[in-house]
Predict the 3D structure of the following.
Amino acid sequence: MPIQQAPAQGKEEIPAGDASPTDGADRAGTGPNCAGISRSVRSAWTPESYARHNYRTFADFAPAGEVLSAAHVDYPLLHAALFYATNEQRAKHNATQLAYSPALEKAAREHSIDMVAHGFFAHENPNDAAKRTVTMRLALQGIPAGAQAENIARYTARRRSSPYTYLSYARLVVGNWIKSSGHRANILDPSYRSLGCGASDCGKTCFHIAVTQDFADVAPDAVPTLPLTAPRQNTP
């Protein structure tokens, strides 16, 4: 089944303290009502790895070429693959590289978990008033009001494994977004400086995975990635 996308969450210019912005988010159907499961998977990726890689060196990082299997998803690695696939597209379009934000990653991950667990696919969370909009979700993670945006997608397969590696799946998702004007605008917008990506899957008989990426112009915890001019780093 192809990747499904919701209409892109557009840029918001939000005054500080405004907890109820107008965002124009759209619903785009629902997914399976999956409670999800918790797995203990030792990750090949750490938050510190972002500073040691750029999209070029990440493509040479061996775990990024491993098959993405729902039986043991390495979520930090998948999030990194989505992050670097996004910076790869920005480089192709002469846009500056985005910094990594753990807070944006956490917001994105939690929204993906909520979408899968509660069977919705939208920028608005219908089940938690405190996390209704992307602005509210980012505020909960300490991201100040400003220019913010969100892209979401989902993929469903009948089997428990996908035909993709971590990096090829990420490139598929980001490649589909770049073909959509709203999502493309978010990915390439020069006003955004930081990005965090998060995903979650159903954990049942099908492979139903939701993906979220959150952008912001200001993220206090932003970590610059390895400059594109830097030599290859051998550590993960």
In short: Residues 46 and 157 are 28 Å apart (CA to CA). The helical segments are 55-59, 75-92, 102-118, 134-140, 166-178, 181-188.
